[in-house]
Write a sequence for this structure.
């Protein structure tokens, strides 16, 4: 009985908090990342450029058209990938910070207090 | 999937549960104080910070939502603990209710749950929205050992879970619990909901409006903005497809509107229903076919096309279409602005599109330009359509399509897709979402009952427009009516009022006056019709059934064939009914079927395809569906034309020559016929029993009318020839009318002796025409003599005219 009461008083909330902090929130963050990428692609158009990698720009089916289009599209694809990678790094950085924050707060005081 | 509800609080008995709950709150507060103390005293600063984060989480905002998200449940998950899917407030409410139930031991737990729900702020809001008073509930307690309340709660939670999933909500809240409780079949609750006239769909709409209104309020660009709003905005000078494979189309952009661009910028393209049409359309476009969408205005043709643009823009269309732009080009608009150079401009636009590529052309209301007399758009468009190099979507109304076929064979250019009307459920959902916007704009509460009523009545009685347009118009008109009478709510009565004003169909609740009229209809009709009990009884019966809302699902209110000799009161019955029940004889559509003796006369009945002649049967019913139709001398109709009446009597619906549906389900049809009247007379003279005569006649009628047609009549009524007594009664009724008229106009009373009356009957009846010449005779003998008296100034107000007969008619003025 006493254990049950203590469990409800402290443990339940603590377990739920840990579940939220280490599982639920990272899930939300990952979903959010993909949503961000999806809305960025409306502007950067990575998918559209990948689909048409070998097609010229502005319907110019001459040699010049192909000549300029391919590097342009490659550049856009590379730029988009790099941009999405940067965002991923940012998200990852934030996620790592988020995950170590509780340990940091608890351990920092113990390890580095005078 | 296994469902259960496991919460550690529920392990304790209800009293201990209360104590533990209070202790927990006290404990949290204590920790908070200690943490703040340590934080400010800089002792264990970081640890205190961690504890604070934890406390903020467990007491404030993070725990508002549920632990898990219903939208992201993994397929392999086979155990669902509802504790993880209830938001914080609902979880506390459920635990509290279970605790109370264990203490009070209610007999009916679901009723108790309902009682507790009614105290919640959110549910009170729902009742305000529904314009209903919160009911008073009495809870009976059990003296014996209580049931397992947790298990009784489970089916409600399961139902709530399904609803939340269907509505794509992340977790279960109090409103969803309430909705689930309504869907659960608890007898006592069903009675309460029935007493309030609270149907599931009303509650669902109310809950959707409550849940989504906060979301809509936040969203600046809402999906339902009418397209006209953003068409006015300036578009960029050069629009290209997103893969940049197309060329600039300056001329097209001058006259057209880029839907893919709008879908991107304005987030337009939300669609409810029409999934089949979208699939078909995409399939045809993929195969390179041109598509013609046919549907009445207001069915959502343009919304479907805008949705296609949205799919393309969001990379959700098939890969073959992903790099296209979808551009609207209203040819009749271009023509009206540039009549002289129209074909030249059109040629340039087509060249522009060929030059650019990657363009789907949308031509709205194509019939307008096809039917334009001074221009042949197919000079340019014909070859384009035939080559199938530019995917083209055109739209037309069914009427426009039929009229266009007289000028061009559209079927050789287009694949046809008929746009179906939205179902009533889909329309209710669409209008519920739209109502959130209207409420915001008009500052009025739109009750779910008014939405459901608008959809129900719009579908049935506003036939000139399909759903959702018909229902939408009713709500918009309802809002202005409610604002005019300064009402806070748009109620279903306001919608009924508007439908009644528009159609004169009695959709309102039946009032006392009408109730009286209906209950006494036989007596009222007998004031004008002598004898003919059967016909009168039948008519009164079907009208009573109709107004009580118990009418048969298909067909008109009633279809009767009155057979009998001339002048026995067949037509008079219809006239009397029109006057007494429909308000005036003018509200009767009367057709003399002698005029329809040739097959080509069908045009007069349902109109012509070019729209030059309007149907004499269909047009009045389209305008006023709540009518009495009298088809005189029905047996003279040509058999080909008679076939038209089969679907009318059966389904209550036919299409006119222009393909428009005409609804007869609110009409009462009376056909009269004097076929075999000579036989009836002879049989009566021979002294044959009337029942036997009716039987013989009915079998003979099948020689004139097909058996299918005869079977579709609700009743074939045989009118008896009139005897002397009946004729006297008729004459009396006619004299009574005259009496009333003279008294009103000249203040003179009229008295007629029995011998005089008998003489008028003798003179006014005819073996062929029955009582028909009677009115003429009364006019000849009495009315004209009274006119003479008036002109000779022999009558003054208060006088009395006494008519006697002895060899001659004698008019005495007293």
């Amino acid at each position: 009985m006493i254990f049950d009461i203590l469990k409800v008083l402290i443990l339940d909330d603590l377990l739920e908090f840990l579940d939220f902090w280490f599982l639920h929130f990272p899930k939300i963050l990952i979903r959010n990342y993909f949503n961000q990428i999806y809305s960025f692609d409306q502007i950067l158009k990575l998918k559209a450029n990948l689909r048409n990698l070998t097609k010229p720009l502005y319907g110019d089916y001459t040699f010049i058209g192909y000549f300029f289009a391919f590097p342009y599209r490659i550049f856009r694809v590379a730029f988009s990938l790099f941009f999405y990678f940067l965002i991923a790094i940012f998200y990852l950085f934030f996620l790592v910070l988020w995950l170590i924050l509780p340990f940091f707060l608890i351990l920092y005081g113990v390890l580095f207090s005078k | 999937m296994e469902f259960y509800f496991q919460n550690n609080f529920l392990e304790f008995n209800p009293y201990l549960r209360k104590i533990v709950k209070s202790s927990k709150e006290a404990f949290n507060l204590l920790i908070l104080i200690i943490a703040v103390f340590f934080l400010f005293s800089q002792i264990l600063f970081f640890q205190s910070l961690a504890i604070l984060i934890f406390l903020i989480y467990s007491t404030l905002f993070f725990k508002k939502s549920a632990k898990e998200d219903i939208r992201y449940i993994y397929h392999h998950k086979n155990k669902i603990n509802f504790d993880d899917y209830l938001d914080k407030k609902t979880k506390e409410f459920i635990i509290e209710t279970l605790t109370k139930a264990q203490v009070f031991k209610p007999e009916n737990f679901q009723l108790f749950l309902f009682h507790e729900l009614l105290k919640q702020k959110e549910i009170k809001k729902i009742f305000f929205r529904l314009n209903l008073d919160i009911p008073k509930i009495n809870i009976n307690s059990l003296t014996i050992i209580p049931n397992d309340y947790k298990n009784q709660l489970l089916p409600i939670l399961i139902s709530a879970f399904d609803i939340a999933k269907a509505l794509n909500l992340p977790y279960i809240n109090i409103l969803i619990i309430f909705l689930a409780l309504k869907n659960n079949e608890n007898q006592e609750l069903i009675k309460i909901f029935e007493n309030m006239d609270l149907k599931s769909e009303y509650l669902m709409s109310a809950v959707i409006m409550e849940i989504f209104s906060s979301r809509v309020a936040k969203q600046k660009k809402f999906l339902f903005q009418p397209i006209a709003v953003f068409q006015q905005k300036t578009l960029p000078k050069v629009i290209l497809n997103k893969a940049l494979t197309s060329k600039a189309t300056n001329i097209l952009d001058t006259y057209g509107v880029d839907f893919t661009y709008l879908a991107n910028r304005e987030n337009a393209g939300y669609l409810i229903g029409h999934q089949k049409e979208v699939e078909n359309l995409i399939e045809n476009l993929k195969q390179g076919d041109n598509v013609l969408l046919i549907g009445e205005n207001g069915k959502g043709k343009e919304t479907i096309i805008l949705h296609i643009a949205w799919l393309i823009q969001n990379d959700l269309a098939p890969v073959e279409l992903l790099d296209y732009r979808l551009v609207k080009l209203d040819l009749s608009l271009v023509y009206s602005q540039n009549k002289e150079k129209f074909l030249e401009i059109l040629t340039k636009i087509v060249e522009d599109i060929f030059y650019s590529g990657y363009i789907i052309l949308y031509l709205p209301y194509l019939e307008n330009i096809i039917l334009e007399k001074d221009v042949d758009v197919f000079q340019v468009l014909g070859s384009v359509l035939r080559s199938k190099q530019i995917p083209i979507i055109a739209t037309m109304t069914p009427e426009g399509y039929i009229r266009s076929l007289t000028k061009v064979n559209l079927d050789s250019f287009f694949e046809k897709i008929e746009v179906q009307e939205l179902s009533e459920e889909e329309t209710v959902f669409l209008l519920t979402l739209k109502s959130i916007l209207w409420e915001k704009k008009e500052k009025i509460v739109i009750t779910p009952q008014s939405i459901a009523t608008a959809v129900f009545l719009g579908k049935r009685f506003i036939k000139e427009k399909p759903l959702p347009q018909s229902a939408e118009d009713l709500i918009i008109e309802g809002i202005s009516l409610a604002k005019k009478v300064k009402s806070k709510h748009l109620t279903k009565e306001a919608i009924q009022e508007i439908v009644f004003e528009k159609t004169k169909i009695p959709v309102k609740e039946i009032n006392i006056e009408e109730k009286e009229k209906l209950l006494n209809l036989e007596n009222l009709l007998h004031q004008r019709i002598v004898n003919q009990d059967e016909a009168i009884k039948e008519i009164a019966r079907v009208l009573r059934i109709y107004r009580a809302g118990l009418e048969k699902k298909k067909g008109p209110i009633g279809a009767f064939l009155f057979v009998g000799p001339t002048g026995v009161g067949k037509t008079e019955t219809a006239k009397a009914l029109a006057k007494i029940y429909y308000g005036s004889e003018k509200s009767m559509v009367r057709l003399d079927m002698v005029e329809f003796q040739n097959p080509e006369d069908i045009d007069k009945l349902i109109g012509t395809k070019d729209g030059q002649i309007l149907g004499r049967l269909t047009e009045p019913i389209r305008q006023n569906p709540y009518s009495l139709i009298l088809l005189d001398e029905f047996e003279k109709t040509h058999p080909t034309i008679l076939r038209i009446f089969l679907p009318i009597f059966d389904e209550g619906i036919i299409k006119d020559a222009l393909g428009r549906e005409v609804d007869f389900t609110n009409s009462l049809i009376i056909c009269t016929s004097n076929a075999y009247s000579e036989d009836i007379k002879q049989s009566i003279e021979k002294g044959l029993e009337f029942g036997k005569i009716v039987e013989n006649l009915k079998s003979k009628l099948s020689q004139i009318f097909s058996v299918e047609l005869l079977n579709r009549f609700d009743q074939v009524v045989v009118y008896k020839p009139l005897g002397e007594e009946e004729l006297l009664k008729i004459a009396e009724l006619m004299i009574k009318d005259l009496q009333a008229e003279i008294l009103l106009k000249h203040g003179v009373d009229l008295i007629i002796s029995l011998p005089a009356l008998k003489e008028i009957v003798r003179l006014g009846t005819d073996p062929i025409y029955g009582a028909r010449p009677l009115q003429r005779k009364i006019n000849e003998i009495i009315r004209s003599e009274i006119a003479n008296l008036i002109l000779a100034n022999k009558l003054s107000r208060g006088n009395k005219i006494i008519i006697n007969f002895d060899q001659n008619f004698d008019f005495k003025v007293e």
User: Anything to note?
Assistant: Residues 23-112 of chain A form one domain. Chain A touches chain B at residues 4-5, 7-10, 12-14, 16-17, 19-21, 24, 27, 31, 41-42, 45, 47-49, 51-52, 55-59, 101-102, 104-106, 108-109, 113 (CB under 8 Å). The longest helix of chain A spans residues 63-112. The helical segments of chain A are 2-44, 46-51, 63-112.
